[in-house]
Amino acid sequence: MNDVLVSDLDGTVVFRDGVRHADRAALQRWHDAGNTLVLDTGKSIDAVRRVWHDEGLLLPDYVIAFTGGVITDAALRPLVEHSHDPGTLAQVADVLDDEQVALYASDIERDYEVFNHVGRTSTILPTFKPASLQWLSTRRLFGIPVFVPQQPDQVRIAAELGRVLASCAAVHRNQDFIDIVPAGATKGSALRELVDHVLPAHGRVITLGDSWNDLSMHEQADLSVTLRSAPREVIDQCDMAVDSAAELIERLLGGSAEPNQAETIPR
User: Fold this and answer.
1) Domain, as residue range, for 20
2) Is the CB of residue 175 less than 8 Å from the CB of residue 145?
């Protein structure tokens, strides 16, 4: 029975220079061995298309986008959708009005910039269009990413957003972004929905992710894996740590990455 590898994108297999050759080749070997690949990311569908599909990479079997807000098939056609309540973006903009951040919003088709108080952008959000808060209020939104370059600011701002949005949205920290998604949406909840209701019969579920928003995904795994470069809190909650996706896949295909061997793998 085929195994399922569920991988985060940014900081895990997608870097500033794209997807590394060794990881690209390893993912192809994973597919050629008859296994399943799922991408589980905070990115929008448009951002996934630009960094993955448009780069000619191996098509995943499924994509979980917007930190669990949407599940798609290999061609990025939505299978499951959870959108924001109307008015959520306006609440976020009000909280962030005087902060040194950049505010974005995403519908099912593309990403938009609401305002930028930082003066720079991030490669994590590769392209966007400027749009007014008024126009975006007419759109069905799935993700509200906030670029927060300063880590101390991120902790404080995430806490304030969590307080204001407690009844209508979920707030997830993700390296130098805060991802605001529909209430109840997490990478883990979407993975559970995918495994229980969409995926055919399968073997082990192996997760690979390097950030705090991957922890709910790791909770659903038979084997949870992070990178050695991940935050300590993430490493401590995973079964094992590796240097790269290529290393993990080599271990999986070679039979040397069983859960009961996790303690023997240096972290």
Assistant:
1) 4-81+186-264
2) no
